[in-house]
Amino acid sequence: MATKLDKTLKREIAVHGKPFVLSIAPQGLKLVGKGRRKGLELAWEDLVSGDAALATALNASVAQRLALEPSSNNNPSRRQINGRSQRRRSAR
Fold it and tell me: How far apart (Å, rounded) are the C-alpha atoms in residues 9 and 11?
């Protein structure tokens, strides 16, 4: 028996070596560059009805300046602590 999807499930994936976050929700799915808020969205209704290609093309045309690339602030060697950028120090 499958588990019902009642809340958003997020997973990090790498595409061509770049980090992305895939969110699977009861409403649909969303692919976002890691460290970003906006991304590509696809509703389950569009996918099931066969309008997925049309919905994706419409979303792409509306958001032409959408930056799907991961954020440049998403550098694992730099961390923000109390609003300050801190470099990770190696263990001695």
Answer: 7
Tokens encoding 52: 């997925």
The whole-model pTM stands at 0.62
Residue whose entry in the numeric block shows the structure tokens 């120090």 = 89
| Cα distance between the two ends of the chain | 50
Q: pLDDT digit string (tens) for 39-88?
A: 888 888 887 887 767 777 676 666 655 556 777 776 655 555 555 555 55
E-assigned strand segments in 1-92? 9-15, 18-24, 28-33, 40-43, 78-81, 84-87
Instruction: Provide φ and ψ at 59, rounded to 5°.
Output: -60, -40
User: How is 39-61 classified by DSSP, letter by letter?
Assistant: -EEEEHHHHHHT-HHHHHHHHHH
11-36 confidence digits (pLDDT tens): 999 988 999 999 999 999 999 999 98
